[in-house]
């Protein structure tokens, strides 16, 4: 797949591919924190197996952490390999040898490798059929990064946090967290169905997320209300999803309807349809004030209504008490609220027949 697929530009692998393969289309090899000079040669030797070479030619690029550089300095100062240690860097990467420390801190990588492996400074010319057909190019000058340092790239201007955020719609048109979770699961099922039905060997060798990444799905719901056409979806459609734009738009329109159901507290997966196709009329109908129900007597003309029962409650008269002169004004005001020495109230409660 990697050799015959011209669209595949990057291959991520473990140490299993550092020996035993001759991929002809590997131009660069990037090695993360190699542990020994042998790893540098074996992994870096996977680049440039084809000829003729293109400019700038095959490259082996090694990345080291700052802690690795400090360990290399310590090893050279002590003059011996690292011993067993409880240091976290040691347990993660293994012990560092003097040879590896010299290679990391050398002034010429090519010369140091030749010295450690006993390579001659210049190879004698080979007259075999292969070398005569495709002669090995000779380097007049060493091209390692120590002898020919790369020109530093200009700093990349950072965008402000506001410019990185997508332009979202009004608050009323944004989807809630429940809608976002429901829609994300729906789009994951959508991409899986496309991946399952695909006959492309390229796509079958990749996970379904290659069609529609989770970060892309999150970006879709950030501007969900603005996605109304295929042109609006173009920033979210990669090469694997091309040709399925109409299906994606149909899925988004279906989610829009289901979000409308969720917005009014209905089950989005319920089979029954909403009363209105426009949704606006339906939302207006549910927001209209309810009319008071009119009571219709269940009694027919042949049935006489039964008398309404009455309930009489008698309240005993207030007890009389002697009032002092100090409390008389208050008593006068209190007594003015009542007429007569006793109160009889009759409360009739009308009950309707159920």
From TrEMBL:
Residues 4-50 form the Helicase C-terminal domain. Gene3D superfamilies: P-loop containing nucleotide triphosphate hydrolases. It holds the Pfam family Helicase_C. Residues 338-354 have a biased composition (Polar residues). Residues 319-354 are annotated as: Disordered. It comes from the Eukaryota. This is Helicase C-terminal domain-containing protein. It comes from Lentinula detonsa.
